[in-house]
Structure prediction request, 354 residues.
Amino acid sequence: MQTDLTKKSKLSFTNPDVRSWTLVAFATAVWIYLYNVIQPFANWLSYGLLAMPQGSHLGEALAFFFYDTPKLLLLLSGMIFAISLFQTFIDTQKVRAMVEKRGEGVGNLMAALFGAITPFCSCSSVPLFIGFVQAGIPLGITFSFLITSPLMNKVAFVLLIGLFGWKVAGLYLLSGVTIGIVSGLILGRMKLERYVEGFVYEMKPSANVEVVEEKLTWSERISRSVDSTKEIVGKVFWFVIIGIGIGAFIHGYVPQDALTGIMGKSAWWSVPASVLVGIPLYSNAAGIIPIVSALIAKGASLGTVLAFMMSVVGLSLPEIIILRRVLKPPLLITFFGVIAVAIILTGYLFNIIL
Prediction:
């Protein structure tokens, strides 16, 4: 009896799943501790070690930088790990197959949700868009995916939760999916297929390869989630640093009245102007959200700033250039015009309800 218990104990201790969850538990405890000491550490570093006068421009800027940098990196690493772990249970091939079988409406909803869970920026979504067209999926449904994918990435969602809470992040997610569904429906009803470059339809779709469903252990799921977290955080690390640096400058040196006058609720033209300004400023969510945080802290309107962020990540010049190779100018102009109007209306709506 005792020997059997000893064997079971050894088996449990050497089990990869047990070891993986033990490391996750330890990492979680360290994460919680570090997150709780960020604020006093930032204040000590700025006003204690560096002896910056409290209330000074440089002191405020440094305190903002020293606080937001570790905070956002911790949020990214923790939340992206959790989301990546969740994604190991999602079979994207099955989701795509389900989208192919659905018609208008339900297909737009599924394509928008598929875009929301896939980790693609505006440029890397284009190859999947082409694949959808080649597979015979209606154009409006493919646009729902193409619109939602860059707007609703996990980095944006995580950072919004950390900076503004679940309410704002949830509204942003809902608005992004809604923009994808409604814009896709509108574009689909306009029957613009003739404005897709002919070679897209002439290209043969990739051969159907039977996908063997993987049966992953918890150890393998955790390992993949850790690898995904390292990859994503590594890719956006410098965007975060640069974005927080710009945000720190705005926080410390830009007068509040100046920003409130330009991006406040009282300026009716601020939302469309912010969308137009954001289009050429190509960045990803990691780089732009720290700037959004600093703008709001200075008194800018939340809806206006979020509309600015949406235009930066969802209406980028590189995406326009890439899409021009597969879309003729009338469709390209219509596509971006519909999205721009949807983002502007969303900005006004956020200003009203928040």
Notes: The chain has 18 helices and no strands. Residues 4-11, 205-212 have pLDDT under 50 and may be disordered.
